[in-house]
Fold this protein.
Amino acid sequence: MAAMIADAREAPGHGIELIRPDWPVPVHAGFTTRQGGVSQSPYDTLNLALHVEDDPTAVHENRRRLVAQAGLPEEPRWLRQVHGTRVVHADEVERDVTEADAVWSDRPGQVCAVLVADCMPILLASADGGCVAAVHAGWRGLASGIIQVAVAALPAPPAGLHACIGPCIGQAAYEVGEEVIEQMQAAGVAPHYERNDARTSRAHLNLADTAAGILSACGVAAVTDLGSCTHADAEAFYSYRRDGKTGRIAAFISLPA
């Protein structure tokens, strides 16, 4: 399934740039870039993760700016992401402690969020605005079934969900070994990939297209792909594969308070 592509950016307040999903859903959602914060190199500037050895004071200021400038009703329910398949309700989250890779809510004012720097953030929302979710997915998460588990956790039929795939590493930059492709296929996932040279066992994996296919198989028909590559756009995004020691952007979503 080919996802629709959208990249609507806005820069409110003091320079925090937000990317908003172009979808007709009555929710508050967006993706940050690395611009508009106070963190120093190599985390410059809007790093929102506490686990990457950045100055915690800077991270908390960045988070404060995000809440204020994005108009969030609360600080996001930050997860401790572990490349697994645990999905939790926002009520269960102890910020920066709860281990999970997706969080959902059916309560107004609770902000679901995930942090990424090449892995793929996916936002989900029911068409009627009754529930939302934020999902973190790398290739391991896709192979393990994080998308399927997250879709099944929501109290809404898959056909009534909208999905937005946020900034992640693009196919051209994401070279993986044959064992990655084999593990995904063994798990029943149809990975989208290409080989530039038939003589090599390396492949270029397309996370976004693979996720769009999984969402479609789950029954989610409305899929938007921002089409932004974190590796290619160093000014806007962090990339672990490009830089190693680096920060994290956020994907957030909530029902209106």
